[in-house]
Automatic annotation (TrEMBL):
<dbReference type="InterPro" id="IPR020550">
    <property type="entry name" value="Inositol_monophosphatase_CS"/>
</dbReference>
<dbReference type="InterPro" id="IPR020583">
    <property type="entry name" value="Inositol_monoP_metal-BS"/>
</dbReference>
<comment type="function">
    <text>Converts adenosine 3'-phosphate 5'-phosphosulfate (PAPS) to adenosine 5'-phosphosulfate (APS) and 3'(2')-phosphoadenosine 5'-phosphate (PAP) to AMP.</text>
</comment>
<dbReference type="GO" id="GO:0043647">
    <property type="term" value="P:inositol phosphate metabolic process"/>
</dbReference>
<keyword id="KW-0460">Magnesium</keyword>
<dbReference type="GO" id="GO:0008441">
    <property type="term" value="F:3'(2'),5'-bisphosphate nucleotidase activity"/>
</dbReference>
<keyword id="KW-0378">Hydrolase</keyword>
<dbReference type="InterPro" id="IPR006239">
    <property type="entry name" value="DPNP"/>
</dbReference>
<keyword id="KW-0479">Metal-binding</keyword>
<protein>
    <recommendedName>
        <fullName>3'(2'),5'-bisphosphate nucleotidase</fullName>
        <ecNumber>3.1.3.7</ecNumber>
    </recommendedName>
</protein>
<feature type="binding site">
    <location>
        <position position="144"/>
    </location>
    <ligand>
        <name>Mg(2+)</name>
    </ligand>
</feature>
<dbReference type="Pfam" id="PF00459">
    <property type="entry name" value="Inositol_P"/>
</dbReference>
<comment type="similarity">
    <text>Belongs to the inositol monophosphatase superfamily.</text>
</comment>
<dbReference type="GO" id="GO:0046872">
    <property type="term" value="F:metal ion binding"/>
</dbReference>
<dbReference type="GO" id="GO:0046854">
    <property type="term" value="P:phosphatidylinositol phosphate biosynthetic process"/>
</dbReference>
<dbReference type="InterPro" id="IPR000760">
    <property type="entry name" value="Inositol_monophosphatase-like"/>
</dbReference>
<feature type="binding site">
    <location>
        <position position="77"/>
    </location>
    <ligand>
        <name>Mg(2+)</name>
    </ligand>
</feature>
Length: 380
């Protein structure tokens, strides 16, 4: 990748995201087979699972272990409030077991695990260590342990997203997409399945190959590696393929993706935009930052998210995806055409209306023009 400045950071980040993906796959399989135990609701009614806390704990632990000489700042989604009550002992035990089971596999990914299994208090400490609020100065790791938790509990798409911000700019992004197969054709196959319980009919090779994507700012390169299966070997860089955005710039041929839930993005507004710029295909509604992955890899050309007025987008929902799409050749801005600002703390402060992601400048200009002519705040 040329610039070696972040070589160790990128290497550790890619490995820990692979490790996190293996954890998530295991928990998702259990969740789907055993029913929905250990899915909790947060204050905003959004779901949180054993996987969200466990991934946050392992990423925090592995980063601390590998960068012992630094005072780490980690901005991440989850906190320990609902894990620390007396009623949540069972939940904390489930997280502890999941974390230890996963860290025991760390050497397979070229990472060191702890000398002895972590206890509940250490796990709570690892999770709550990720309480930074970011900002314009210095280095901040940014983690969404499970993005698209709703997709995760439904047995559908989700992502593990880790990024590094330095002086307010995203410099590294790693996106693990355990259910997003290496080949586009397999996605349609997966989408036709009701849930992973029905996947026994699919050969394990096709399903097992989820992927991890990554990019370093300024390299002009974005990469994708296959996830390894239960008994596979981690091949790291040797298994990486370059990825590029699509070359389609005719809206009539373009695919646009957006969140599944109407409550997360205004579907009728985006349908109007798509129509006015000449998009003909039906939207591809997918949970999580897999939407960024789809653009970076050339499986779709446009991603739009217009949350309701007053909702503030969080940096962990976008940081990793933005740098990967940009280095793969795409364009990411707010609806006014300005770059997203990762320097102002936990939220994308100053975001103009919504987020638009395109595979190239031609589609982006058309989309921004469509927003300009269609905007009516009462829509949102
Ligand atoms: N009201 C509202 N509006 C907009 N966005 C919201 C809202 N509530 C939550 N979120 C954030 O959306 C993240 C999930 O986005 P998705 O694109 O996966 O949504 S969807 O499930 O496909 O509808 C989700 O990320 P995770 O919590 O990591 O799953 C949230 O950070
Ligand atoms: Mg998220
Ligand atoms: Mg999340
Ligand atoms: Mg969440």
């Amino acid at each position: 990748m040329g610039d070696e400045r972040y070589a160790k950071e990128l290497d550790v980040a890619v490995r820990v995201v692979h490790l996190a993906c293996s954890l998530c796959r295991r928990v998702q399989k259990r969740l789907i087979t055993n029913g929905s135990d250990h899915v909790s609701s947060k204050d905003d009614d959004s779901p949180v699972t054993v996987a969200d806390w466990s991934v946050q704990a392992i990423v925090s632990w592995v980063l601390s272990d590998n960068f012992r000489d630094q005072k780490l700042s980690i901005v991440a989604e989850e906190d320990t409030q609902s894990l620390s009550t007396t009623e949540s002992v069972g939940l904390l035990t489930a997280v502890t077991d999941t974390v230890n089971e996963c860290l025991a596999e760390a050497p397979k990914y070229g990472l060191q695990g702890p000398k002895k299994a972590l206890g509940g208090a250490q796990i709570l400490e690892a999770i709550s260590q990720c309480n930074s609020t970011g900002g314009p100065i210095g280095r901040h790791w940014v983690l969404d342990p499970v993005d698209g938790t709703l997709g995760f509990v439904r047995g559908d798409q989700y992502a593990v997203a880790l990024a590094l911000i330095e002086e307010g700019k995203v410099v590294l992004g790693v996106l693990g997409c355990p259910n997003y197969p290496m080949k586009k054709e397999l996605l349609d196959h997966h989408r036709n399945q009701k849930s992973i319980t029905t996947l026994s009919s699919v050969s394990s090779e096709t399903w097992d190959k989820g992927c991890v994507m990554y990019a370093q700012r300024g390299s002009g390169e974005a990469w994708m590696q296959p996830l390894i299966g239960e008994d596979g070997k981690f091949a790291g860089k040797h298994s990486a393929h370059r990825i590029h955005v699509s070359s389609i710039d005719d809206p009539a041929l373009a695919t646009f993706c957006e969140p599944v839930e109407k409550s997360n993005s205004n579907h009728s507004f985006t349908a109007g935009l798509a129509h006015s710029m000449g998009v003909k295909k039906k939207p591809l509604r997918v949970h999580s930052m897999v939407k960024y992955a789809a653009i970076a890899r050339g499986d779709a050309e446009i991603f739009m998210k217009f949350a309701r007025c007053g909702y503030k987008e969080k940096i962990w929902d976008h940081a990793a995806g933005v740098v990967i799409v940009e280095e793969a050749g795409g364009v990411v801005t707010d609806a006014g055409g300005r770059p997203l600002d990762f320097s102002r703390g936990v939220y994308l402060e100053g975001l103009d209306r919504g987020i638009v992601v395109c595979s190239g400048a031609t589609l982006h200009e058309k989309l921004i023009a469509a927003v300009y002519t269609s905007w009516d705040c009462s829509n949102l």
